[in-house]
Design goal:
- InterPro entries: Aminoacid_DH-like_N_sf, NAD(P)-bd_dom_sf, THF_DH/CycHdrlase, THF_DH/CycHdrlase_cat_dom, THF_DH/CycHdrlase_CS, THF_DH/CycHdrlase_NAD-bd_dom.
- Its EC number is 1.5.1.5, 3.5.4.9.
- This is Bifunctional protein FolD.
- It comes from Kribbella jiaozuonensis.
- It is built from 10 helices and 9 strands.
- It is α/β, with parallel strands linked by helices and 280 residues long.
- The chain folds into 2 domains: 85 residues, Leucine Dehydrogenase, chain A, domain 1 (Rossmann fold); 118 residues, 3-Layer(aba) Sandwich (Rossmann fold).
- The strands form 2 sheets. A 6-stranded parallel sheet has the order 1-9-8-7-5-6. It has a 3-stranded parallel sheet with strand order 3-2-4, sandwiched between helices.
- Strand 8, helix 9 and strand 9 form a beta-alpha-beta unit.
- Helix 6 packs across helix 7 and helix 6 packs across helix 10.
- The longest helix has 22 residues.
- The protein is globular.
- The structure holds NADP nicotinamide-adenine-dinucleotide phosphate.
- NADP nicotinamide-adenine-dinucleotide phosphate binds next to helix 10.
Length: 280
């Protein structure tokens, strides 16, 4: 292996420790603990695990959790009503709707029921617009975490060609917007992109957000490329074939221990930001 690892674990731990200090200061000043509400619909075991991890880390950071669990057959209207209740509840400062929701639900409608001031996972259209225009606002947690990791490893983005593989509203699309705001030249690739390996070979920075194990191969990469693997598939496997890619890349994120911890750290940081803004 020739690539250096871009490890998220330590940076994420530092971010969570700082969020914990700030959460304690909020409690001290206002007598209120910052509170993150999590909404889980259905019984997907992976989603349940992610929500549990977020609640556990919240607890460690002195952030209270409110847990809403709804059955798989929940309708859009029912979910929207639950989220509106949380949006209006002054004791809740941040709201996370675990993605994906069951197929019968209009996920966009559910996301838009989140009060933009409580959108600590950065999923509303308003948050997306803020990311697109380079304005302050909540960042989508995974893309925001990726940007912090790139900054930590001093990855030059200005003028760099970044290829983002995947265009989901929670990951690929906002990741591209944040890279653009950092003056990268951004290309989005998706399921209908032609000659993907050829395109990826032109990238200085590759963001893999596909949801397919070992999808990006070593011979798709330009030597010296920076590779961020946002994927998380069964068996702790990313979207990049790690062993092959690590022989060609300059920097690469491991899975696990790369992007994953950064996502949670940013979520907690933004929950404290939201509490400060609402109480202050
Ligand atoms: P998603 O909503 O399923 O989106 C996948 C994207 O990949 C889509 O834009 C799709 O294109 C594209 N795609 C599918 N097949 C492709 C192909 N053959 N060639 C090029 N593009 C292709 O997934 P997601 O929610 O963005 O998640 C992506 C991955 O990130 C998953 O492994 C997920 O587990 C992981 N993830 C990790 C974190 C974390 O905290 N680390 C957070 C969220 C997600 P179309 O738009 O054309 O369909």
């Amino acid at each position: 292996m020739t690539a250096e690892l871009m490890i998220g674990t330590d940076l994420a731990a530092e971010m969570v420790a700082k969020a914990a200090e700030r959460a304690a200061a909020v409690q001290e000043k206002y007598g209120v603990q910052p509170c993150l509400a999590t909404v889980l619909v259905g019984d997907d075991p992976a989603s349940a695990t992610y929500v549990r991890m977020k609640q556990n880390r919240s607890k460690k950071a002195g952030i209270a959790s409110r847990s809403v669990v709804l059955p798989a057959e929940t309708t859009t209207e029912e979910l929207v009503a639950e989220i509106r209740k949380l949006s209006e509840d002054p004791e809740v400062h941040g709201i996370l709707l675990q993605h994906p929701v069951p197929a019968q639900i209009d996920e966009r409608a559910a996301f838009e029921a989140i009060d933009p001031g409580k959108d600590v996972d950065g999923v509303t259209m308003l948050s997306f617009a803020a990311m697109a225009f380079g304005d302050p606002g909540f960042r989508s947690a995974t893309p925001g975490g990726i940007m912090r990791l790139l900054a930590e490893y001093d990855v030059p983005l200005e003028g760099a060609h970044a290829v983002v593989i995947g265009r989901s509203p929670i990951l690929g699309k906002p990741a591209g917007m944040l890279l653009l705001a950092s003056n990268a030249t951004v290309t989005y690739a998706h399921s209908r992109t032609r000659d993907l390996p050829e395109l990826v070979r032109t990238a200085d920075v590759v963001i893999a957000a596909v949801g397919k194990a070992n999808f990006v191969r070593g011979d798709w990469l330009k030597p010296g490329a920076v590779v961020v693997d946002a994927g998380y598939n069964e068996g702790n496997v990313g979207d990049v074939h790690f062993e092959e890619a690590a022989e060609v890349a300059r920097l690469i994120t491991p899975v696990p221990g790369g992007v994953g911890p950064m996502t949670i750290a940013l979520l907690l940081e933004q929950t404290v930001d939201a509490a400060e803004a609402q109480l202050g």
